[in-house]
Amino acid sequence: MAFARNLLNDPNLAVPxxxxxxxLRGIAWGADNQTQNVRVAESPDSYTASYWRLExxxxxxxxxxxxxxxxxxxxxxxxxxxxxxxxxxxALSEQLTAGKASNYDKAMAIQEYLxxxxxxxxSLTLAPPAxxxxxxxxxxxxxxxxxxxxxxxxxxxxxxxVMMSRAAxxxxxxxxxxxxxxxxxxxxxxxxxxxxxxxxxxxDGLGWTRFEPTPSRAAPPAYxxxxxxxxxxxxxxxxxxxxxxxxxRTRPDIGDLPTSGGGSQGTDLSPAAVLQWLTHGxxxxxxxxxxxxxxxxxxxxxxxxxxxxDLITARTVAQRVEVQWSFLTSxxxxxxxxxxxxxxxRQARAYYQQEAFLDAEASAALGRAVQxxxxxxxxxxxxxxxxxxxxxxxxxRGAASTRRASDRLRAGLWPSRGLAQLRSVRNNLAWSGRxxxxxVGAVLxxxxxxxx
Length: 452
What we know:
- It contains 15 helices and 12 strands.
- The chain has helices at 58-62, 69-74, 86-97, 103-117, 142-149, 154-167, 226-229, 271-278, 281-313, 317-334, 345-356, 360-379, 385-400, 405-413, 416-449; strands at 2-3, 19-23, 29-31, 38-40, 47-51, 121-122, 151-152, 172-178, 182-184, 187-189, 195-203, 207-210.
């Protein structure tokens, strides 16, 4: 997905969910491990992002298991109710979800109450405070007042579903983003008026799942429509029809490949047979291992080459300092520590010390690196960047020691600078190929135009 004319201020960036990768033209970025929010060092004018297109069915959602006690402890924050509205929210949630066996069915009951069945109205103007029987201000908190007056906009609807879902034992939080906008000539234009809020509920086995309780604002996902929710449990079609029996045949293995001449002896080495073996059974496993091994070697080498090239092409000491600092921030981002939202080096130092849980040695190295950066930027002088390189390595060792093994493995095998370099090479090759085709076409047109 390509984005152009981005006007959203850093450190925020609009990206699709769930994100796989993004190309920000060399700008450092990272994603929060818990919220998956993307933060950038500076706002890019244009960028591209790739994401998983997930299409769960109502049957899949209905069959998700309930949260275990261990999972409930992990999601304690996303199960917490707001004190003033807890009684009202809990009573209403219990009423709506009574008799619902799965968390998905509970979520659909809450969504449809807010979206269609409860008599709510979408309005950018909130209703005045509700009155008691004597005509005085009832003194309700904002959420209770919304549930009583039944008038509000997306934030109120999303908050109500989040809290009622939590009361039903479903972890939930509110997401902020944008509606698709308007489409013209294949391009979607998204403006500030398209800003939107919606609830995301955690369904075990599928993760954070979007619902849409706000009426007259956005269509719910396909799996969250009343027609989809009407499927019978297990996903079988209603009306007595039966689903086709599953095909229990195994994928062909190497022993199942056709033999030459149709006999039982010999091995078919035709391109079609080899391709079939490479895409099935043990052949697919071997092919995947080879591709993974190749990627695990190429991407780190590309990252190392890019850093070396940047250092060689840097003409001044100040430029080499900036290269080292950029390498530090991008490497920390690879470890799962998003870029600092702060502007000044000292603020960045405090941010990284807290987020990376640096020990005394790594904190001291980070302090020296920040001092070098400040002297380079503001005093017009800096010591030999060789010492800065040592400090950068010390900081990264300290940060890596506090991260999960999966984070360290991903940072080592798939560094963002290496991926960016490979994308740059790919784009240059594509551009060169198009340029060559244009040149050949121009020569041919010129040659044929000279014929009588």
